[in-house]
Amino acid sequence: MKKMILLLAALAGMKATYAAPSQAMISGVCAPRSANGMKLYNVREGKLVEFASTTLDKEHNFAFAIPVPASGYYYLAMSVDGKASRNYIRVYLQSGEQVTLDIQDDKGHYSVVKGGEENKLLYAWQQLIGPLKSKTELIDTTTYRAFFPALEALEPAVATFKKSIHTKNGIFNRLLAVTVDADMESTAMGILVMPRSAHPDKKQYPAYYNTILQPKRYCSAAILELGEGADLVRRYAMLTASRLDSITLTNRVELSLSVICNDTLKGVWMVDDFRSYRSLEKFDAVFTPYQKYLVTDNMQKALFEARKSLSTFKKGTAGYNFSFPAINGDTVTLASLKGKVVLVDMWATWCGPCKKEIPFMQELEAAMHGKNVAFVSISTDKAEDKEKWKSFVKEKKMGGIQLFAGGWSDMQKFYDVNGIPRFMVFDKQGNIVSVDAPRPSMPELKPLLESLL
Fold this sequence. Notes:
Layout: H1 2-17, E1 24-30, E2 37-44, E3 47-55, E4 61-66, E5 72-80, E6 83-84, E7 89-93, E8 98-103, E9 110-114, H2 117-134, H3 144-163, H4 170-193, H5 208-212, H6 229-244, H7 252-258, H8 263-273, H9 280-287, H10 297-310, E10 323-325, E11 331-333, E12 341-347, H11 352-367, E13 373-379, H12 386-395, E14 401-404, H13 410-414, E15 422-426, E16 432-434, H14 445-450
Parallel strand pairs: 1-8, 12-13, 13-14
Antiparallel strand pairs: 1-4, 2-3, 2-5, 5-6, 5-7, 8-9, 10-11, 12-15, 15-16
């Protein structure tokens, strides 16, 4: 009987001391007067997924209550009429966490009014990396000449900060250590992949790049706990693969996957790359051998949706009958070119990669002179830049058929063109051959055109 009483007392004590998971709360004020809402995101396989949204009250206050939060990062963004800012604020949530923020602007400037030691340390890190990260944004004009010295100057402070990561929360400590490395590496890669007026030769890279742009750098899926994780994998694979060999249309996927040593990360890279394809035949030919890396339900869903969307641009189906004014004032349509193989180049005078293709396009035109091929360049420059376009075409002695779309036209929207240059090939009947053709700088394009003659 005595043993039974002791057991009941022990159970009662356990019940008294056990604390059920309690809700977390994120609240604060968003100062920008243009904002009228806030969005909250969680992380799924290295990408942000909208979790909740709310409107701001008259004083621009907001609050989110998360009943049973999964411990980890969440991201906040102010919104205007439902459209979220791309400057996210990263916070750490766990059971019972109470975070209060003062958001000062749409550029990611904020302060932590209230929060546990984890969020205070996370804030300190984001203040440290913030100035360097801002130099890689599209609106910033910093080139590698100023960025590289700033990167090297920050390295000692980053090493010191990593030594300060010793909160009582071991899970958070591990996550923040991964975050510090990931943020530094993503920022360092950012200056290399963002459009800039000048780009460095690989010989000019600081020593730091030799430590991060090496094969098998990422063998753990831990970086997928960050909302920027998938983007980091994409940048890493592109830059590291290009150091091993010249990337071509045929070896790009194989070479990129070869530098990643984690199957889940390979799957993440593949899903991110799905958007690069506009031809179902090419998509299947490229990715079928690697489908074993699509290891999660989300990846399999992405594969299904990608193939479904590509089915509308099948080889042999009628191409979009574009209609644009030519530089000589005539109107040219796809239908008017029937009887010719048509190579379309969507480009703009402000696009660096587009301009790099011009000499290769001119060489291809010369090599196929007299052949039944129409070389059609469609400028997506804004309407107000039409004279600039005309001068550029004349200065560069661009041949072929020069058309002016006057911005992002219905043709670009029809083919879901999100970036340029984009090359497309149509057969003599105006049917689709490829809506994502090789570039003139790639050896695969000329044989493709010749096969259609």
